């Protein structure tokens, strides 16, 4: 269950409404109306290598935004539109990105440990050298994603779609791949998945079956 927490800098608040947002704290009391254009909000982020720890960006339109190096630890970004966004070296530890759109996003070296990405769309996203330890990627779409040397140890990839992804050097130690579809994935070895959790529904690339 999602929860709104505390009072924060109103510049951290951004929702689907193009002009304003009314949020409630845990007591149900509305925060003041925040009159802010989405483009201005993105510029605020771009101009400051800033700390947005715990920010509320629920359903936010941040498409192609420059969020490199931004601290979004514990941020609420469920259903956010981050298509084509730049998130290199961004800190998203423990962030809620459930159902977020991250198609073609650049998350190289991003910190996503313990992040919730259940049902997120990460097709063609760059996740090379990203830290995804313990992240929830169940039912996430990672088709044609670049996951070279990504750390997915103990991540949850139940029913995740990894078709045609580049998995060269990715760490799947202890990862739960139950029902995951890795058919067509490139550069995957048996050694990489020998300590992963798999079941009868896990689909592997044909070259592993033949090897």
Jot down its keywords:
211 residues; little secondary structure; two-stranded antiparallel sheet; disordered N terminus
Shape by Cα distribution: elongated
What strand line-up does the widest sheet have?
Answer: 1-2
Please report the total strand number as a whole number: 2
Number of helices: 3
Major sheet size, sense and barrel closure: 2 strands, antiparallel
How far from one another are the termini?
A: 44 Å
Class from secondary-structure proportions? little secondary structure
Q: Strand fraction band?
A: under 5%
Averaged pLDDT, please? 82
Q: Give the low-confidence spans.
A: 1-44
- The helical percent reads under 10%
Give the topology:
Elements: E1 20-21, E2 34-35, H1 38-46, H2 190-193, H3 206-210
């Amino acid at each position: 269950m999602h929860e709104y927490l505390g009072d924060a800098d109103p510049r951290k608040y951004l929702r689907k409404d193009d002009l304003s947002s009314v949020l409630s704290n845990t007591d149900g009391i509305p925060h003041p109306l925040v009159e802010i254009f989405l483009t201005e909000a993105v510029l605020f982020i771009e101009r400051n290598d800033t700390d947005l720890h715990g920010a509320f960006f629920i359903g936010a339109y941040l498409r192609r935004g420059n969020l490199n190096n931004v601290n979004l630890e514990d941020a609420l970004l469920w259903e956010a539109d981050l298509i084509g966004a730049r998130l290199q070296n961004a800190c998203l530890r423990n962030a809620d990105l459930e159902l977020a759109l991250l198609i073609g996003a650049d998350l190289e070296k991003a910190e996503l440990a313990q992040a919730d990405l259940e049902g997120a769309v990460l097709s063609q996203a760059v996740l090379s050298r990203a830290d995804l330890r313990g992240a929830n990627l169940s039912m996430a779409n990672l088709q044609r994603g670049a996951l070279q040397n990504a750390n997915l140890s103990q991540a949850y990839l139940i029913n995740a779609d990894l078709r045609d992804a580049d998995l060269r050097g990715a760490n799947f130690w202890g990862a739960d791949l139950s029902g995951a579809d890795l058919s067509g994935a490139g550069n995957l070895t048996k050694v990489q998945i020998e300590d992963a959790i798999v079941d009868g529904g896990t689909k592997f690339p044909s070259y592993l079956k033949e090897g």
